[in-house]
Amino acid sequence: MPNSPLQIPFVDLKAQYAPLRAEVLRRWDQIIETTGFISGDWVEKFERGFAKLHEANHCVAVANGTVALELALRALKVKSGDEIVLPTNSFIATAEAVSNVGATPVLVDCNEYSNIDTDQLETALTSRTVGVIGVHLYGNPADFDEMCLFAQQHGLWTIEDAAQGHLAKYRGRSVGVLGDIAAFSFYPGKNLGAPGEGGAITTNNSELAEEIRKLRNHGQSKRYVSDIIGGNSRMPEIIASVLELKLTHIENWTNQRRKIADRYHEVLGECENIELISLQSDRESCYHLLVVHVDNRDEVRQLLTEQGISTGLHYPVPIHLQNAYSGLGHRIGDFPISEMRAKRMISLPIYAELTDVEVDYVCAALQKVCG
């Protein structure tokens, strides 16, 4: 290990933007010059490009990822009293969107891959269940064939929470068209990150796409003609212009993430005190996050920090143990796999600009502090 530690951020957005800076500023200057700030050409170009990358018939750009989930639920006519099954091992926005449209999240545990355990769907089913949300956690596709089969058997719909799933593949198919509808996030740190907030919905269902276009823009089918009660969830042109530019790089960035993840797995895979999430041969993760599980997690993080390595926690408190969802009545022990993983997980640095030297440095430091 070097005497003077390297400084390795958890994510390096400056490195990503540096080669794009001139073109970003050119596009923004053009937007300012034309004063076309809302719902213009860049939004439409981005929607077409993002839909093509994910093999979807439709893409609707919206304000952020949480709004994308909410609009998907509204388009599916979710109402007060409905129940929706989703994993407790996720960011709270998955459940929050359900609550925000008046429905009730029904939580289930995760499997060994940290995604929703489809074997538990039957036990969560009630007469009020209307759908299932599967989360492609960390960029690893959830078991959507099993989810969709369950949904078909019980007359339910399925939503992909694809906030972390850009360009991931599941059994040869693209994330974004595995269920009835999918919601993406472009939060700055995502694989496809915006200079601010952004989100999108993909679907092959033309009626759902049209409904969402109305919902994001005051329910309007044309200017000043509102067919339904909607709201303002539009994506600004300055956001769309950067996302459209990044579409030309996202495939290369994703391939780089996969190479970096392979290196992590190769170096750390034989370490007894470090558990990686197993690879699944029938899917390709986009590795939004590279998560390992270790004992004494907080101590390990602190020691890595002292070596100049920034890490993340995704997510330290499962949804069922959040104060916001105490009303669901869950207790510690209800979802043991998610609880165990929440105590032991660490997200290591992973981004396209990370070098082999830096990956090896992280691995060596982690191996050392884990004994």
Q: What key attributes describe this structure?
A:
371 residues, alpha/beta, Aspartate Aminotransferase, domain 2, Aspartate Aminotransferase, domain 1, 2 domains, seven-stranded mixed sheet, three-stranded antiparallel sheet, 13 helices, 15 strands, 37% helix
Walkthrough of the structure:
It is a single chain. The protein is of the alpha/beta class. It is 37% helix and 16% strand. The chain is built from 13 helices and 15 strands. It has a seven-stranded mixed sheet, with helices on both faces. Strands 7-6-13 form a three-stranded antiparallel sheet, with no helix packed on it. Helix 4 packs across helix 8. The longest helix has 19 residues, at 250-268. The model has no long low-confidence stretch (mean pLDDT 97).
Low-confidence stretches: none
- Overall spatial form: globular
* Distance, first to last CA: 15 Å
Largest β-sheet summary: 7 strands, mixed
- Helix content, binned percent: 25-40%
- Count of discrete structural domains: 2
The overall pLDDT, averaged over residues, is 97
At the third CATH level, what is the topology name of the largest domain? Aspartate Aminotransferase, domain 2
